[in-house]
Amino acid sequence: MGRRALEVDKIVMDLILTDDTLLKKKLAKKILDMAYKKGIYPSSIHEFYMARGRGEFEGFTVPAMNLRSMTYDLARAVFRTAKKNNAGAFIFEIAKSEMGYTSQAPVEYTAVILAAAIKEGYQGPVFIQADHCQVNAKKFQETPEKELEALQNMIADSISEGFYNIDIDSSTLVDLSKKDIKQQQKNNYEVCAKLTQLIRRIEPKGITVSVGGEIGEVGHQNSTPEDLRAFMAGYKERLRKGLIGISKISVQTGTSHGGVVKADGSIAEVKLDFGTLNTLSGIAQKEFALGGAVQHGASTLPEEMFHKFPENNTLEVHLATGFQNMMFDSKHFPEDLKKRIYEWLKVNASSERKEGESDEQFFYKARKKALGPFKKDIMGLAQETRDKIAQEIEAKFDFLFKQLGAVNNRQLTDKYISLKRVITRKRQEAPVVHDGEGAD
User: Can you tell me the distance from the alpha carbon of 79 to that of 118, in angstroms, rounded to the nearest whole number?
Assistant: First the structure.
């Protein structure tokens, strides 16, 4: 193992384990500089998705993976999988809520992903996404300006740290009590347009951040063509003339985040409406020139379902809980640590326990909330232990890439994605972008 590889390990572990925000930023900057020198660039997938919307290629679904824990180890596994499969189109993402309960702020998440790319000798664009930049419906009703300001700050922070892919989730504001479909979607498309305008104002010059919208909240009523058309009509009216809009649309087709867990701890079977997914993706492409439709909450679906996503023209699929489950349930994950986590949950997450829930149901749903408080314990496990867990999950990554057809598409990302180096000269100045040529 070379000196540089060991240096990356040390920097990234120091960054993960420190509570000093300034030190985190300093170490993150060091990793970003190393990444650029190695030909690794945080990038937007926007142009790639626009080409898909124009029908210039098809036949695969882009995996978007939320890494909640062991992020460095699992990101390394993803890059190994990508290299093995000649894949270029895959996304690392983290939701607004996950940033909180996993203690992974944007500055840390980006740096850890880039460090993993350096470690594995990966080169080219790296797509990092803020998933579910979600509006809290209750808070929005009470004080809309305050709720939007908090979301705008989070988006601005994410973009400043190399998240050049932002999923706006204002579908929480859809009001199904209204009879008119456009009125149902009104708050949704107005907020989505407003946040898109913010993104266009603050994105680095030369980079078009990929923005996603959402028409149906995951776990609720399935989306319809009428929903999509009503949302897009209102969105285009509200978006300032001349501005670039969204590149994709998330829809609801029958899944729920994390799956539905039964009393014995097993996951209930899901009836996913692939016909709806196919129809909505086709409308998004043909009528609105978007990349297509996005499916959330898919990682806990049965393995035999995944090949159906590319078969049904799905642009992107979001995968999260399944990887977390594999870590917790691995035979290599120490039992004593799991026991401490579960004891912690009994005290600190007791308010989330619903009446009549079994221990299995409670722990399954609540254990993600322990990932932040136990981050140092998990990352403090022996490297050999983390490697064994990561190897198990790497096999799952490989399976998913193949099932989604997300293989041998590296030449497409090379064709459509321009590598841009973003340099912020001074805090008050806008970021400056240079073409990513001459990387060693």
Answer: 10
Domain boundaries, the chain: 3-337+382-435
Q: Are 393 and 299 in contact (CB under 8 A)?
A: no
Given the DSSP bridges, would you call strands 62-66 and 91-95 parallel, antiparallel or unpaired? parallel
Residue 206 is given by DSSP the state T
Q: What are the phi and psi torsion angles at 341 (to 5°)?
A: -65, -45
CA distance linking residue 423 with residue 415, whole number of Å: 24
- Tell me if residue 40 falls in helix, strand or coil: strand
One DSSP character per residue, 36-82 reads HHTTEEEE--HHHHHHHHTTS--S--EEEEE--SSHHHHHHHHHHHH
End-to-end CA distance of the chain: 20
Higher local confidence (pLDDT), 2 or 113? 113
Residue 98 CA to residue 131 CA, distance in Å, equals 9
Report the topology of domain 3-337+382-435: TIM Barrel (3.20.20)
Q: State the Cα angle at 114 between 402 and 34, rounded to 5°.
A: 135
Cα(216)–Cα(225) distance, integer angstroms: 11
pLDDT in tens, 131-181: 999 999 999 999 999 999 999 999 999 999 999 999 999 999 999 899 999
Predicted pLDDT at 434: 52
Beta bridge partners of 63: 317
Instruction: Give dist(CA 102, CA 51) in Å, integer.
Output: 35
Do residues 243 and 281 make contact, with C-beta atoms less than 8 angstroms apart?
no
| Spatial distance between the Cα atoms of 30 and 115, rounded to a whole number of angstroms | 10
Q: Are 100 and 68 in contact (CB under 8 A)?
A: no
Burial of 356 (0-12, 13-18, 19+ CB in 10 A): exposed
Query: C-alpha distances in angstroms, 156 versus 74, 133, 223?
Result: 26, 11, 29
Question: What is the Cα gyration radius of the chain?
Answer: 21
Helix (H) or strand (E) holding 130: strand 124-134
Q: Are 288 and 330 in contact (CB under 8 A)?
A: no
The pLDDT tens digits for 402-424 are 999 999 999 999 999 999 999 76
CB 126 within 8 A of CB 40: yes
* Contact criterion met (CB below 8 Å) for 12 and 115: yes
Spatial CB neighbours of 64, under 8 Å, sequence gap ≥ 6? 90, 91, 92, 93, 129, 131, 294, 316, 317, 318, 319
Beta strands in 75-122 (DSSP E): 91-95
